[in-house]
């Protein structure tokens, strides 16, 4: 990722989680385990872990739901076609870290599942179309880094 794309936006004091949060396990002095919220970084948004909660605006969600609905309806009669919304994609190339695009259209899926993460190696197919709804905070990585990484992953069409 370029230095300019990796620059973190400093969170205002009233918002310690500008990109979102994840729960991190901590062992306290008495030996018990607790979970604390940790802020996500721009790198975490680029390569999320399962369970990360990325912050999205209301407009972002409306656009995603609209596009998800349109894609689902358009592909409803296509055997093996799946549209995923905000699902983590684990690539079959171990050199590539996972991504979580806003929308993914995947063709040739043998069995529809309730995925929280789509494992390309296990499923035997990769997304054909990925869509990101850009925001000012993540636009740099959406237009540059993700474009390059999705190309390396063999994604045919990437829209942002």
UniProtKB/TrEMBL annotation:
Positions of the Putative restriction endonuclease domain: 57-158
Instruction: Give the organism the record lists.
Output: Roseiflexus castenholzii (strain DSM 13941 / HLO8)
Lineage at the top is:
Bacteria, Bacillati, Chloroflexota, Chloroflexia, Chloroflexales
Q: Which PANTHER family would you find in this protein's record?
A: SLL0995 PROTEIN, SLR1095 PROTEIN
Could you tell me what this protein is called?
Putative restriction endonuclease domain-containing protein
Pfam families of this UniProt entry? Uma2
CDD domains named in the record: DUF820-like (cd06260)
């Amino acid at each position: 990722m370029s230095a300019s794309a990796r620059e973190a936006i400093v969170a205002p004091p009233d918002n310690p989680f500008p990109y979102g949060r994840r729960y991190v396990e901590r062992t306290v002095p008495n030996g018990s385990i607790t979970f604390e919220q940790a802020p996500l970084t721009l790198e975490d948004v680029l390569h999320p872990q399962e369970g990360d909660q990325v912050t999205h605006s209301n407009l972002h969600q409306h656009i995603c739901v609209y596009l998800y609905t349109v894609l689902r309806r358009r592909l409803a009669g296509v055997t093996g076609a799946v549209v995923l919304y905000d699902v983590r994609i684990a690539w079959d190339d171990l050199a590539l870290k996972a991504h979580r695009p806003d929308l993914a259209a995947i063709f040739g899926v043998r069995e529809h599942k309730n995925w929280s993460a789509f494992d390309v190696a296990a499923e035997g197919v990769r997304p054909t179309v990925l869509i990101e709804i850009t925001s000012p905070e993540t636009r740099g990585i959406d237009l540059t880094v993700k474009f390059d990484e999705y190309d390396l992953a063999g994604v045919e069409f990437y829209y942002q």
